[in-house]
Amino acid sequence: MTGAERRVGFRCDAGVKSGVGHLVRCVALAEELCGRGVEVVFLGEVCGSAWARAQLRERGYGLVPAPREPGELAALARRLHLDAVVLDSYLLPEETGAALRAAGLPVLAIVDGDPLGQEADLYLDQNLGAERRPFTRSGHRLAGARYVLLRDSVRGRTRAGGGGEVPRVLCFFGGTDSAGVAPEWARALRATGRPFHATVISPVPFEAGWPIAVIPPTDRLPELMAAADLVVTAAGSAVWELLHLGVPTALTWVAANQRGGYEELVGRGVAAGLGRAAGAESVGVLARLLADPAAREEHGRRGSGLVDGKGRERVADALMRLC
Fold it and tell me: Where along the chain do its domains lie?
């Protein structure tokens, strides 16, 4: 498959409840494909997040409402003259991939461990350690951090933090904070009693008090990550961007499917573990990290070599060989 006159569809959704992680990693792969001359179109819904809608609009990517029924989706893909379809959703009927393949369309399924019954020609699991886990589906699998999908805005950036006397903290939980945990982690930071300056990203405004500034979701996130001395976040897709930048990170998890990634990252020492909820133990971990620059930077050093930024090129190569 060469780029000329080729079209790839991305079937994914984004919203307040589902978050924007699926959309963000699809955008990263779409950027790579567009750079090769491939036209891309997104199939699905983006609800309740102006920031997520802007990611498509600003890049000129079309968004077409997608039917849920697999056969109808396959018919839509044929009407749109797609040459391949990328699936990235936990909520699609498990027959979706099979219906697309029966219609003659190669399918790449982006998964996080369990493929949830989805049939595909190619699977992508970019989670750390995925290459060591069993996988029983037929079809080729790209597994592990070598295949992490990073956006242009992250790949072209270098770390700028790590030098100030008062640590700069960035706190965010995906593009929508679907679990609504930003206020409790802001309180946990204040409870440390340590000096810091923090930016907390939340789609719902709340009063945190000095030295915490609360801002809405922003396109400046890669810049803010690169400038931070410590990031407090959940073990979702943004972790790979932080690892690439080498930013010291303290992790929690807000969804069951993040638990495995949390344990892998914390177990390997590439991130500090805060546990599930903001309590006395997690406040103690944050206090130690805020007070000890060397401890913070050690986490960043361990993680910095794991994501080389070329994963989306490897994935695009594999996808284009299918068509």
Answer: 7-150+308-320, 156-303
User: What proportion of the chain, given as a percentage, has pLDDT over 90?
Assistant: 80
pLDDT (0 to 100) of residue 3? 54
| Residue 305, H or E segment | none
DSSP track, 146-188: GG----HHHHT-----S--SSPEEEE--TTT-TT--HHHHHHH
Q: Where are the beta strands (DSSP E) in the chain?
A: 7-11, 14-15, 39-43, 46-47, 62-64, 84-87, 107-110, 122-125, 140-143, 168-171, 197-201, 212-215, 230-234, 249-252, 272-273
C-alpha distances in angstroms, 2 versus 35, 36, 121, 176, 314? 12, 8, 18, 36, 15
- Give the list of residues 6+ apart from residue 47 with CB closer than 8 angstroms, or none: 13, 14, 15, 16
């050690």: which residue's tokens? 298
Q: Are 217 and 176 in contact (CB under 8 A)?
A: yes
7-150+308-320 and 156-303: same fold? yes
Residue 1, pLDDT above cutoff 70: no
What's the CATH fold of domain 156-303?
Rossmann fold (3.40.50)
The model's pTM: 0.91
Residue 174 and residue 179: Cα distance in Å, rounded?
10
Residue 213: other Cβ atoms inside 10 A: 11
- pLDDT of 266 higher than 60: yes
What's domain 7-150+308-320's architecture? Answer: 3-Layer(aba) Sandwich (3.40)
Per-residue model confidence (pLDDT) at position 158: 87
Phi and psi angles of residue 304, each rounded to the nearest 5 degrees, phi first: -65, -25
* Angle (deg, nearest 10), helices 280-291 and 293-303: 90
